Amino acid sequence: MSKQLLAKHQAIWSLDGQTVLYRGVNLQLSHVSQLVLSEYQQAYTLLYDELMFNTGSLPSLESWRFQDDLDLQCYGGSWLQHPQNADLLAGADLALLRQIQGQADLRALFIYKVTSSSNQPATLDPVAINVYEAHVQDFLKRLLVLCHVTSGQPLRQPELLSIRWQNTDRQRHILLWEKLVLIYTQYHKGQQQSGAYKENVRFLPRAVGNLLLDYLAYIMPLRQLFLRQPKPKALISPYLWAKLDGTVWPDSTLSSCLVQACARAQVPRLYTVN
Questions:
Q1: CA spacing 20 to 30 A to 9: which of 49, 75, 147, 165?
Q2: How far is CA 53 from CA 60, 65, 98, 111, in A?
């Protein structure tokens, strides 16, 4: 801020450092942990009960077990392709499809019943796919808030929502390093004016990072299968926060997700983001 300018709104901290008053809102530090716990519990339930069908038979992936090549450049590459992870990930890409095929209730939900007189092969039900994808989007909203709040100094909306989980013509932003999930971006607000990049490194807490790993290893392959039902040659979006059709979430999404998260956790609206 220029020395000639005076900020219109200033945060005032209590003497014990536990409460801040900003623009008429009293925010306690305990509200932050309350928000994180609320969003984590909902993300956990959505992931394991809804998206992974509450099977309990699939091993949860833990970041400390996996290796990553931070210099991997191949298109579509990620930690999922590291040779040392092959045994730990064996069958993960088909695990949920096998759950659908192997359980009568899931078969009835996802697969069209074909009569014996019909020559048409069994197909996936688009209504069930749409319902599943709605749960995916709800999970990603909770994950977005968790990544924004728990990884340290918050990233800006355009930066966070542009994260790619696999390589394209540019390197991915989600890496594994020092046994944790790392978000690595090169962006800052004045980049277009200065032309200079700023390296932003954020580590996710282990519990949040493990949710992300399970989502990428188990859910993404099933979404890829669902996407190819109407479009046989389509590829799933490399962007983490995107719809099944490849549409990347707009920058304003983070602000709306934070507002909804605060309402769910019954805490004051924490802040707005740029």
A1: 147
A2: 14, 24, 11, 15
